[in-house]
């Protein structure tokens, strides 16, 4: 069955959503979009899906494998059951846009200029980067008398005006700031966020979704992280901490009073808080405090093809994707006995059916949790790596340390404020 690359929101509404096993998960009720200013591409963020129990959830567009004429198929059958809640900077097509009034300057339809037009439907198009963006808008002109059908016009999105991140015909500074941040890297958003007045910074943080806010918090200076997490409600703060990398969550909690940190840890899901607690038990200046307990860990029976598939995970930082660690089960940290590692470059040179157990580098020495930061720096310089294994005394893998986390701690405390290129040093 052919895959759809252009579709109107009205067509999507009511379509069945299926997991990869073809089981029906629910039906589409709306589409959430991020409106960008100045005619820039406005993306569809996800679908509002009504489950069989009438609960409405948000399903990110990245989870959509294909939109077909009959239904929508997901990449994975697992979905978050958290109830959908609209946020500033986000609009729904059917709920907020359809039926609203806009205007156009499309040169193809000069007769429509300076007239109020009603949005009838919104077309989405899939791009080469797999994003879905608003491409065109169907609008009604004046409704004729005597019950005749109104004339429909199809206008390019770039020629539609009156829709902002705050809504149709609405100006909302917080929503527009969030929309401006939509396609920026977390580090760049963190820099822009730090320049906002404190109250506005807190308003923006309150409206960002948990995952996005977690990514941005990890790029802020320690003091700013603590300030923002303190400004959130206690339960929301725990939710955001669950989305952060365990080592970053541990660093942030270390900036808070002990009693507040303990309350937040208790509110977190035990599976998420356990690795954070382990990291907080290490001295701040050691490798143990810098490592992540969630590197790429596989069993020796894994094939090269399977290992490469794991390394392609877009949620895995590039530094951690560069090295695959192989252990005896269990593969969750602390693991079974550590057997060795294999670099991504070596995987690319081996036949797909090869077992990774046969291509390990067992001679690469590990780091240990109580090694200091200088030892880790010498390790990376010696072996030309950006990631290294961290073992305990019994040869179990307990995590991995990445060079970016090491640099974050070795640079001066104010390096985020000064940026990667200090003023006056542009050579």
Automatic annotation (TrEMBL):
Superkingdom per UniProt: Bacteria
Keyword Protein transport: no
CDD domains per record: CBS_pair_Mg_transporter
A Pfam family hit: CBS
GO cellular component: membrane
UniProt-listed InterPro entries: CBS_dom, CBS_dom_sf, Mg_transptr_MgtE_intracell_dom, MgtE_N_sf, MgtE_transporter, PRC_barrel-like_sf, SH3_actinomycetes
Keyword list, A-Z: CBS domain
GO function term, MF aspect, one: magnesium ion transmembrane transporter activity
UniProt domain CBS: residue ranges: 360-418
Protein name: Magnesium transporter MgtE
Protein's organism: Corynebacterium occultum
